[in-house]
Amino acid sequence: MSSSSPVTQQTLYLPRPIVNKLLAHAQRYPDIEVCGLIGNDEQDEKYYYPIDNVSKNPNCRFLMDAPQQINAMKKMREKNQALFAIVHSHPTSQATPSDLDIEESSYRDAYYIIISLNTKGVLEMRAYIQKEGSMQEVDLILEDED
Ligand SMILES: [Zn+2]
């Protein structure tokens, strides 16, 4: 079988400063699912764009604020960044995609990162790529700056 995903790879490398931003965002609002986008520029630098969750049930699902999302995508374009990943947190469940996550995911060429606050004291983060109606987990490796 040949790979049909030219953009995403099976191993995702994330610089620790970005990881810290994601975790800090999730920890700051431990009762709701936080969400955001990561852009990646031509130098492979990554930038996190936190976006408000405007879902009516933010404890168990997320809906990105549309104007903020549009604005983030605009900023990415201006800075020659490509959409790299969609991030959200799970306050009370594991870092695995819910049925709703799979149903509602729409960016085919971006990674899907889920942070879980479910485990006491330990933050869990997992990454997925989308494959024909399901999500396939990829290895997530934290990169320390040298
Ligand atoms: Zn979810």
Kindly describe this structure.
The chain has 146 residues and is α/β, with parallel strands linked by helices. It has a single domain, classed as Cytidine Deaminase, domain 2, CATH 3.40.140. 22% of the residues lie in helices and 34% in strands. The protein is built from 3 helices and 7 strands, in the order βαββαβαβββ. Strands 1-7-6-5-4-2-3 form a 7-stranded mixed β-sheet, sandwiched between helices. A hairpin with a 2-residue loop joins β6 and β7. The longest helix has 13 residues. The N and C termini lie far apart (37 Å). The site of zinc ion (ZN) has 5 residues, from β4.
Largest sheet: 7 strands, mixed
Q: What is the assembly state of the chains in this entry? A: single chain
Which architecture per CATH? 3-Layer(aba) Sandwich
Structural class: alpha/beta
What is the helix tally? Answer: 3
CATH topology, what is it called? Cytidine Deaminase, domain 2
Give the N-to-C terminal Cα separation.
37 Å
The radius of gyration is 15 Å
| Shape assignment | globular
CATH superfamily: Cytidine Deaminase, domain 2
Give the strand line-up of the largest sheet: 1-7-6-5-4-2-3
Helical percentage? 10-25%
Distinct ligands: zinc ion
Number of strands: 7
Please mark out the parts with pLDDT under 50 across 5 or more consecutive residues, or reply none: 1-6
Order of helices and strands: EHEEHEHEEE
Beta-sheet strand percentage?
25-35%
What is the total domain count? 1
CATH class: Alpha Beta
